């Protein structure tokens, strides 16, 4: 019988739970109003589809909002976009994760103190775009250690990481930045949920033959987790839901670990476990 090890830290993190609950509460209390998000409230298509059924619609672009309620996503919002929305006749409900808000505040303070601000993260990710909006002009986004090496020297540098970055990579980037300034302020902004999931992936990879990582294909922390599992040398599948799991992957396998990103709901995790068990029976 295939041994299934489910990660302890699988499924909704604190910030995602908070955002989804806030969205559901807003929908329940405002049945007659239009409720929108600008971009997905969390990076899980199955959850955003469920929310759409309850009337919470991702309109993708702020120009499409004219009235009603806008829920700011867990990843935050660029301050200029927020300002434009505030000028319209809309009510803002803020579901920004407090860990993301903390980075926005750090960056704001660094800007006031005239630091060169380095943000390490994915340039296209909404969280990074939002944080950048608070950083002013002296901001540089980097995605790699190589990019850190190429940076010019600065008098003083403050560095933050996107909440879902790899802990190891961030350490290496900070090591490079130490060579670029006499005065470096490092902020550990990788959130607890991300760190715990990464630590668990390392432990589980020593105990099983294969790894399955569940979460949205658009979810940064899930993608990072799957990449980490691959780097740990275990055959890995990143799937969004049970039906994505191909049976071939589990052929002749004695043990498998199931991990899930911070925006994966429990019902999808349970479905995957059922499917693994069925795979064995078939
Ligand atoms: S992964 Fe971290 S930063 Fe993102 S929503 Fe969850 S707790 Fe917040």
Write a structural description:
- With 282 residues, this protein is α/β, with parallel strands linked by helices.
- It folds into three domains: 99 residues, 4-hydroxy-3-methylbut-2-enyl diphosphate reductase, catalytic domain (Cobalt-precorrin-4 Transmethylase, domain 1); 84 residues, 3-Layer(aba) Sandwich (Rossmann fold); 88 residues, Cobalt-precorrin-4 Transmethylase, domain 1, CATH 3.40.1010.
- The strands form three sheets. It has a four-stranded parallel sheet, with helices on both faces. The chain has a four-stranded parallel sheet with strand order 3-2-4-5, with helices on both faces.
- Strand 4, helix 3 and strand 5 form a beta-alpha-beta unit.
- The mean pLDDT is 96.
- Bound molecules: iron/sulfur cluster.
- The site of iron/sulfur cluster (SF4) has 15 residues, from helix 1, helix 4 and helix 8.
Quick description:
The protein has 282 residues and is an alpha/beta fold. It is built from 10 helices and 12 strands.
CATH class of the largest domain, anyone?
A: Alpha Beta
| Global morphology | flat
Examine the coordinates and then state which fold CATH places here, giving the name of the CATH topology of the largest domain: Cobalt-precorrin-4 Transmethylase, domain 1
Ions, cofactors, ligands: which are bound? iron/sulfur cluster
Return the domain count: 3
Biggest pleated-sheet summary: 4 strands, parallel
């Amino acid at each position: 019988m295939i041994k299934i090890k489910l990660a302890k830290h699988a499924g909704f993190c604190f910030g995602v739970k908070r955002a989804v609950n806030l969205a559901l509460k807003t929908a329940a209390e405002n049945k007659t109003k239009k409720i929108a998000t600008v971009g997905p409230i969390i990076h899980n298509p199955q959850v955003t589809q469920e929310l759409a059924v309850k009337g919470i619609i991702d309109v993708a672009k702020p120009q499409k909002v004219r009235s009603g309620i806008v829920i700011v996503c867990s990843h935050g919002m660029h301050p200029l976009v927020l300002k434009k929305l505030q000028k319209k006749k809309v009510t803002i409900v803020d579901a920004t994760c407090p860990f993301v808000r903390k980075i926005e505040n750090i960056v704001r303070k660094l800007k006031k103190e005239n630091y060169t601000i380095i943000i390490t993260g994915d340039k296209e990710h909404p969280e990074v775009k939002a944080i950048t909006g608070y950083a002013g002009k002296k901001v540089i986004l980097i995605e790699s250690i190589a990019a850190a090496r190429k940076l010019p020297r600065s008098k003083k540098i403050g560095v933050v990481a996107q909440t879902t970055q790899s802990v190891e990579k961030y350490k290496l980037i900070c090591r490079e930045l130490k060579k670029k300034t006499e005065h470096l302020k490092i902020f550990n902004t990788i959130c607890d949920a991300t760190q715990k999931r990464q630590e668990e992936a390392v432990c589980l990879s020593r105990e099983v033959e294969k790894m399955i990582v569940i979460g949205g294909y658009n979810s940064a922390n899930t993608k990072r987790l799957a990449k980490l599992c691959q780097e740990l040398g275990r055959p890995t599948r990143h799937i969004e839901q049970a039906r994505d799991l191909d049976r071939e992957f589990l052929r002749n396998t004695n043990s498998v670990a199931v991990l899930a990103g911070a925006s994966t709901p429990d019902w999808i995790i349970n479905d995957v476990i059922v499917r693994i068990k069925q795979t064995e029976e078939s």
